[in-house]
Amino acid sequence: MNNKSIIRREIIGFGRPDIGNNEIRAVKKVIESKWIGSGPVTEKFEKMFKKYKKSKIALSVNSCTAAMHLALLSLNIGRGDEVITTPMTFCSTINSILLVGAKPVLVDINLDTLNIDEKKIEKKITKKTKAIILVHFGGLPCNLKPILKICTKNSIKIIEDCAHAIETKYYGKHVGNFGEAGCFSFYATKNLTTGEGGMLITKNQKIANRIKIMRLHGMTKDAWKRHLPDALNQKTKFQHYDVSELGLKYNMIDINSSIGIEQLKKIEKNWRIRKNLYAFYKKKLKNLPLLFQNERPYLVKHGYHLFVIIVDKDKTNKKRDQLVKYLKKYKVAAGINYRCVTDMSYYRKNLKWTKKTSKIAKYVGDNILSLPLDPKLTKKDINYISTIIKKFFEN
């Protein structure tokens, strides 16, 4: 086969959002309403998301990072405390712990699931351990049953990083509902996008009350509540707002929420498409020197947010970064989710992490690659991508 003859003209992008006319009309409607900040549309989105996730309370924020930061603050996690988490995650998980003054403690991953290895957690628990942030990598939930037992036994609070796991369930129950808080991302590449945005779900009313205030400067009444509709109601007694907490600017606005509402309407349809594409990828790539995440190690509904391959160093001398460049040459965009956090210079300097801190995550982080997976991808696209990858290992 002539290499030049198979190169596409169009790039197959990574993490392409499924934005259509409904989202465009929804944004236009909000703009024309003249109320584009946090208001009734955002409140509607919260109610819809709460219903979808079968949670007691849903609070919108401007990112999953904000949700994790607020969750830690609401639990009074701070200086002198330790928070256990995984090294196979985005830097925001680590940053949120550091931002409250606590110390992140890493527990290495399971090579089969790419999630935190529940068998290694107890060895890292100390008297200072106050919480654990669980990351449901790629849409596969952590093995929660044994983790819940460990955390109950040791009075450890659970925060779930569900950035990859909007649709995910563990033994029939939506993730995000197992701990004190579940934190979701609606970033541009996520299964449900609002451009930028996030959501926190909780069953704890006390936590929710604090977060409602902390997400908007610590004020007791936001702009919508100050001006509409209360200000127009002649029977309502006028009240000044107060600042009752040290707050942050973490609120979501109606423009973003209007997109989220339309995205949520097609979340299950798009999930089914990605599930089928995921299976097709595995079929096409199964005989190559690659490792895959085990998508059903226990009873789950996988979110199918990422399709990741890991170059198997026991079977090939080819390098992951070479493959990234090779795919780029053939106009296929790929992501690296993730480099092990112990590779990041800030953490190495300030936390003294090394390549030996989390050996399995380091191996995975050096060899992992995320291939395009979105509802607009076709089996023809996957055939093309698979052909390129096969050629890479043959050369």
Q: Can you characterise this structure?
A:
The structure is a single chain. This protein has 395 residues and is an alpha/beta fold. The chain folds into 2 domains: 142 residues, Aspartate Aminotransferase, domain 1 (Alpha-Beta Complex), CATH 3.90.1150; 245 residues, 3-Layer(aba) Sandwich (Aspartate Aminotransferase, domain 2). The chain contains 14 helices and 13 strands. The strands form 3 sheets. A 7-stranded mixed beta sheet has the order 1-9-8-5-4-2-3, with helices on both faces. α5 links the parallel β2 and β3. It is globular and about 75 Å long. The model has no long low-confidence stretch (mean pLDDT 94).
Question: Summed up, what is this model?
Answer:
The chain is an alpha/beta fold and 395 residues long.
